[in-house]
Amino acid sequence: MIPVNVGGKTWHRSLCDLGASINIMPKAIYDKLRINNVKPTNITLQLADLFERKPYGLLEDVLVQVEKLVFPVDFIVLDTGEESEIPLILGRPFLSTAHALIDVNKGKLILRVENESIEFDVFEYNDNIPIVED
After folding, report:
1. Contact 70, 91 (CB under 8 A)
2. What are the pLDDT digits (tens) for 56-79?
3. Which of 97, 94, 96, 119 lies closest to 108 in space, CA to CA?
4. What band does 133 get if pLDDT is binned at 50, 70 and 90?
5. Which residues, 6 or more positions from 118, have their beta carbon under 8 angstroms from its beta carbon?
6. Cα-atom radius of gyration of the chain, to the nearest Å?
7. Which 3 state secondary structure label does DSSP give 116?
8. What would be the CATH architecture of the domain defined by 2-97?
9. pLDDT digits 0-9 by tens, 96-124
10. What is the pLDDT of residue 35?
11. Measuring CA to CA, which residue among 102, 109, 35, 98 is closest to residue 71?
12. Percent of the chain beyond pLDDT 90?
């Protein structure tokens, strides 16, 4: 999990998931950000529980800041329930855009833009950090 800033709010527990073929923003997060440019979409998602879900919509080119690096990210907005604590899910499209290097043995995730990079210890987890911070 990594901290990301979207729309002036920091989401401390955003999940990088190499197994996810899309980037997902729960509708509860979308509502907090007050972004109004969601586009309708005709796709249907099949989730891990094998149920199919119709997304709320598509957000294109949302600027996601990870420390000093900024990436344009397309998100599928998914209604996961009002009080859901599901984080932003940054899948393969984000990891590709961020030129991610993943060392599973050492537990390192490196994100890169040109000559700059940032490194995260994926084994490090602090339960005391809030999910979101204004």
Report:
1. no
2. 999 999 999 999 999 999 999 998
3. 119
4. low
5. 66, 67, 68, 69, 110, 111
6. 15
7. strand
8. Beta Barrel (2.40)
9. 999 999 999 999 999 999 999 999 998 87
10. 80
11. 98
12. 49
Q: Which amino acid is at 55?
A: P
What does pTM read for this prediction?
Answer: 0.84
Residue in the block written with tokens 């990088």: 16
- Write out the DSSP string of 14-61: EEE-TT-SS-EEEHHHHHHHT----B-----EE-TTS-EE--SEEEEE
Token pair listed for 96: 């590709």
- What does the mean pLDDT of the chain come to? 87
Amino acid at 62: V
Structure tokens at 44: 């249907």
Those residues whose C-beta lies under 8 Å from the C-beta of residue 116, and which sit 6 or more positions away, are 68, 69
Q: Which residues are within 8 A (CB) of 15 and not within 5 positions of it... i.e. 6 or more apart?
A: 1, 87, 88, 89, 90
